[in-house]
Amino acid sequence: MTPNPPHDAAESSPESSQPSPGRKAPRPKVPTDLKVLVVAAFVIAAGYGVVAPVLPQFATSFGVGATAAGAVMSAFALMRVAWAPVAGPIMSRVGERRTYLMGLAVVALSSAATAFAPSYILLVILRGLGGIGSVMFTVSAMGLIARLAPPSIRAKVSGYYATSFMLGSIMGPVIGSLTAAWGLRAPFVIYALALVFAIAVAAWKLRPVEARTDTGSVLLPMTFSQAWSIGSYRSLLLASFAHGWANLGARVAIIPLFATAIATASGAPASGFGSGASVAGIALGVFAGGSALSQILFGGLSDRYGRRPFLVTGLVVAAILTGVLGGAGHAWSLWALCLLAGLSTGLYTPSMQATLTDIVGSKRSGGNVMSAYQACADVGQIIAPIVLGAVIDDVGFAPAFGISGGLLALAGVVLFLTPRASFPQKD
Running DSSP on this structure, what letter comes out for residue 421? Predict the structure, then answer.
């Protein structure tokens, strides 16, 4: 097999080479293997959501303060970033399916062991191990989508996967709040069992993917330098960082604080509907619901009309809505803005994933390329709560939301300026 050229040929295929909106072609069905990934994504996210509400309390049960409890949360994300350069070569060597199953197994074992952690130090170590497994199955899932999704429905499949994960994230905390009555250790056992179920289904239904092309040639890996030479990939890394900052880090860290401030200013009760906790919960829920709905409705449109318009439009609209969130003065205005922001996020996230898989293609292994993309989002998620927390302490919430919106806008502008020819044709 002749390896794909690093960037000249990849950048020479314009978006205009994709089917025109007026041409109707039969739409292929989503392969069974990818349906398995979609179902597993829901189970994984729901399991993680079960653990999330009790993890800080579990950490403080060892007699540590809030800062140390936060370190437990950071250990997971930090190890995802640290292990990302290793996860790519592992996937290229043993294949996407094995890496996916190995990653799930690592998280399942670490979660089960966490339930019986005898000390704070061991708790931190076990959560870090969970981060290693998490980046392994995340990167390999992206690789499987690239290899198995028909090129004409890549964004649609990416939207299904992201929506399933989002819905699991919504359901998980609800389940976790109920299981917390069984004790702080029980949710970790439930998470482990959920992952065991996901492993069993994936091992049963997910076909082994040969590291060879249809002609029998060995599947060559795409190097990071090859991907870096493609303009759309460089722009995509910035978008991934901005998305991780604004929608994974800032949203989870700042919106609960902002909701509490709004509730307190309006004289809301300390508990029940209208309290800071309920306002925050509804805000996060409607954001996730809006994003899920948007991805269901619009996730596949970039397969027909091109990636770039949805990337640029979604990022710019999300930037505006994120930037004005800090001006919300009442719970209802906060919920409305969160819903609209979620809807705008669902416009661009499937196209981000689909653009990445277009760049790698189905005839190459892209472990390093995909792990770098994921690491950018993880870094944004880690840094945002720290930086924006300091901004809020000094100058308030509005500038903090403005910074997040500014990063999204910057990513949108950069993608707008990225030449159309830099977006590879779907193979």
Answer: G
Q: Contact at 8 Å (CB) between 239 and 415?
A: yes
pLDDT digits over 108-142, tens only? 999 999 999 999 999 999 999 999 999 999 888 88
pLDDT, the chain, mean: 82
Q: What is the domain extent for residue 396? A: 221-427
Q: Which among 173, 206, 239 is the end of a domain?
A: 206
Based on the domain organization, do 184 and 233 belong to the same domain?
no
* Domain end point (choices 206, 232, 259): 206
Which residue's structure tokens are 């991907």? 227
Q: Is residue 290 part of a domain?
A: yes
Give the contacts of 89 (CB within 8 A, at least 6 positions apart).
Answer: 367, 368
Q: Return the CATH number at 89.
A: 1.20.1250.20
C-alpha pair distances (Å), 342 with each of 244, 247, 248: 14, 9, 12
Asked if 148 and 281 sit in the same domain, the reply is: no
With cut-offs at 50, 70 and 90, classify the pLDDT of residue 411: very high
What's the structural domain count of the chain?
Answer: 2
Q: What is the pTM of this model?
A: 0.76
**Residue type, position 222, single letter:** M
Classify residue 330 as left (phi > 0), alpha (psi -120 to 50) or beta. Answer: beta
pLDDT digits (tens, 9 = 90+) for 298-343: 878 888 888 899 999 999 999 999 999 988 888 899 999 999 999 9
Q: Are residues 232 and 186 in the same domain?
A: no
CA-wise closest residue to 230 among 361, 409, 142: 361
Is pLDDT of 378 > 80?
yes
Return the pLDDT at 309.
92
> If we measure between CA atoms, which residue out of 304, 365, 353, 361 comes closest to residue 152?
304
Convert the pLDDT of each residue in 169-196 to its tens digit.
Answer: 777 777 766 666 688 888 899 899 989 9
Specify if 2 maps to a domain.
no
Are 269 and 128 members of one domain? no
Token readout for 418 is 């990225």
